[in-house]
Amino acid sequence: MMQKGPDKFYRAVAGEFLIYMSKEIDKIKYPSGTKENPATNCKEISDNDKLPRRDGFYWIDPNRGCAWDEIYTFCNVTSGGHTCLDVKNFNRFSVLPHQKRFRLSSQYKINYGLTDPQINFIHLLSASAQQQISITCTSPVNFPGDFKFFGPMPKKLRVEAEDMQVVYNSCAFASRNAPGKLLIQVSTDEDVRVLPVHDVLYTGNSQKVPFDVELGRACFL
Question: N or C, which terminus of the chain has less Cβ within 10 Å?
């Protein structure tokens, strides 16, 4: 009796392996933004024609490393794929005087819910970034002269004045009984490492009482 050769078995194994590899390549080419198949950033989700163009929360892993540091974050898919980071501990902070200065980091450690390697990879993968900051005031303030904004530790790069734009300012008529509001838009396509904002420093003399700072979403594209 003729013995059956191994060719058929090897062909079957090779076929299954090719199917498996094809699926794995598809997962890399077309990430779904799930915990099992995270994208590198939100732009990959926006570029994936196999997914509906729907804004929402997705899983991303910018450094493509271990699963433990994947990020569940908001993706603005309809804008082209902005990767947006929210402050996790609070988003509104009351800044108190410290050594005759008002500095956010004197009382709080800002947490955007990701590790240093992940934020570094988000910076590397992005060409532009934007974030809004809202500040309450009880007296007129000089902007941008009275305020300085700083990016993530440990580099702590300062946001330059040309990257900041006043969206709304009612501080000119503000008082303790009727506080005003200063809304600032930070946008840059030069050095995205200045965002997200981790520290605010007030160096003026008119603001004598604690004021609130609200950090909006920092979005990268």
Answer: N
Q: In sequence order, what are the residues at sequence separation of 6 or more whose Cβ sits closer than 8 angstroms to the Cβ of residue 49?
A: none
Q: Which amino acid is at 40?
A: T
Domain 86-220: which CATH number of 2.60.370.10, 1.10.10.570, 3.30.420.10, 2.60.120.1000: 2.60.120.1000
Q: In whole angstroms, give the CA distance from residue 165 to residue 163.
A: 7
pTM, to two decimals: 0.84
| 85, 144 Cβ separation under 8 angstroms | no
